[in-house]
Specification:
Layout (H helix, E strand, L loop, with lengths): L1 E2 L2 E8 L1 E4 L13 E7 L7 E7 L11 E6 L10 E6 L11 E12 L5 E9 L8 E4 L6 E10 L1 E2 L2
Parallel strand pairs: 3-5
Antiparallel strand pairs: 1-2, 2-4, 4-12, 5-6, 6-11, 7-8, 7-11, 8-9, 9-10
Length: about 160
């Protein structure tokens, strides 16, 4: 429905995503309905998840509902993404998922191919340390989605 130039949607929410560093595979949870205001047109691959943890504050407050887009296309450099990696261990929530700002260093092999020598997942909150992954194979890190917007909930 449209009100005063704003888009509003009642969305069925099925995910909780940690910002700390990760969540066990089964920790994405909590089917709930929430009235949210969005400023983007909904497209295929978009979903809403509640982000828990303080590591992305003030950009993403603890408990905020966020709109994500999947798949992530193009360069991930500098973008806020939801990722899964088995070696991530979240100090706030535990597990293997996290929402962070993505940075990577790549190295070419001289034949036109390259590999990641380092992937750095940076929190916004300076009280938290970055997650640094070295010599990551392409199949080890799953980039689930990119943050589109932090949603406003309620009236």
């Amino acid at each position: 429905m449209e009100r005063k130039g704003r888009k509003e949607a009642a969305l069925s929410v099925a995910l909780r995503a940690p910002s700390g560093a990760a969540s066990e595979r089964g920790r994405f949870s909590a089917r709930r309905k929430a009235e949210v205001k969005i400023s983007h047109r909904m497209r295929q691959g978009m979903f809403v998840a509640q982000v828990v943890g303080r590591s992305m504050e003030p950009r993403i407050p603890d408990g905020a509902w966020c709109l994500f887009q999947s798949p992530v296309e193009g360069s991930r450099q500098g973008r806020i993404i939801l990722v899964e990696h088995r070696d991530i261990d979240d100090p706030e929530t535990g597990g293997s998922y996290t929402v962070k700002r993505y940075k990577s260093k790549k190295e070419g092999d001289g034949t036109g191919t390259w590999r990641h020598t380092e992937i750095r997942l940076d929190p916004e909150n300076p009280e938290f340390a970055p997650i640094v992954l070295r010599d990551v194979r392409d199949d080890e890190l799953h980039v689930v989605a990119e943050l589109v917007e932090v949603l406003k909930v309620g009236p």
